[in-house]
Amino acid sequence: SSDWRVVFRSAVPEVRVSINGTALPERMRAAAADAPAQFGDGDAETPRLVPSEATLRALLESGAMLPGRNAISYTPAMGGKGEGGEGSHGIGDGAAHSAVAHLHLWESSTAAVVFDVDGTVTQADISGHIGQQLGVPLLHRGVCELACRLEARGYAVFFLSARPLAGPTGIASTRHFLFRVARDSPSGFGLPPCPVLTTPHTSTLSALMDEVVLKASARFKADTLRRIASLFTPPQPASTAAAALPGDSAIADAPTAAAATAATATATAATATSPALEACGAVSPCRGGLYAGFGNRAKDATAYLSADIPPSHVFIINAKSRVALWSQGHGSGRQRGGEGVPTGGSGG
After folding, report:
1. Pairing of strands 289-295, 111-115
2. C-alpha angle with apex 298: 297 to 300, nearest 5 degrees?
3. pLDDT, averaged in runs of 10, over the chain (348 residues)
């Protein structure tokens, strides 16, 4: 499994964790404010950010953890105060004193597609933050439809961002923007419920320092993707192996009418495809693991390539909302798309 990351605003000696209402036999402990809670008693074993293999196996065998999206809650046993929540990336909400998130369970044969957020889903790095604060979806035209069509063809979509875990641009506001605000116009497509992974930073300033000054976001993305890639390797029969990728979705368990309509439209859309869909496979994935990546900068492409995503499946979305195939040899994108990102039908 990838890390189960949750932080609280104060030290918490005991955090109870449950999946779909079933309590885990293991507890977590947050040693300090804004420090990630960890499994282990701190004495007899080394603290860790994931449950033991025995616990994961028991959850699978008992049916407590199911394929697809599972609800996780992190509850302090003695009233620690936290803020918001996001899967393995979680932060307590300060009111209920618990963090609520989701864990996504994928088969080892799943083909995963990663999207950057700022400048890839949004029109630009800065406008993405501005649009989020104003509640205005300043998005690349057709990007929501593209993500929906990829999911409809059997790909597991997830988001990886250099944004912080907490703060005004943290995971809580990011997931709200992605899954409640973001909509393609005029098609009405929204982004599919899927994991969102961020940096472990607990302030916007520290995340910006990494991004702008230290230029460390590319390393964070590369390390995270390599960790995720390791969940799929070595290849094993899908019936006996699964990859658990904690993340989160802000869409309610009962989808809104708009979300349900978008999902239906995805399944019945016209057959015209974008170069991105053609490169990823016209009907369904043919290989498991990290299969394709979409970004807007060279550092995104570098991170994707470092995790062994094939160069032919690394795409850059430029400022004009056009999809370009990354060319590692020239350090730039080679234009492949027509007008905009849309994949067919009425989107874009």
Report:
1. parallel
2. 70
3. 87 93 93 89 75 93 94 81 44 60 90 93 65 64 93 94 80 86 86 90 64 70 92 52 42 26 25 51 64 92 92 90 72 42 35
For residues 172 and 91, the answer to whether their CB atoms sit within 8 Å is: yes
Which amino acid does the sequence have at 73? S
- 97 vs 114: CA distance, rounded Å: 31
Spatial distance between the Cα atoms of 280 and 167, rounded to a whole number of angstroms: 35
As a whole number of angstroms, the distance between CA 185 and CA 211 comes to: 30
What residues are paired with 26 via a beta bridge? none
Q: Which two tokens stand for residue 295?
A: 């970004």
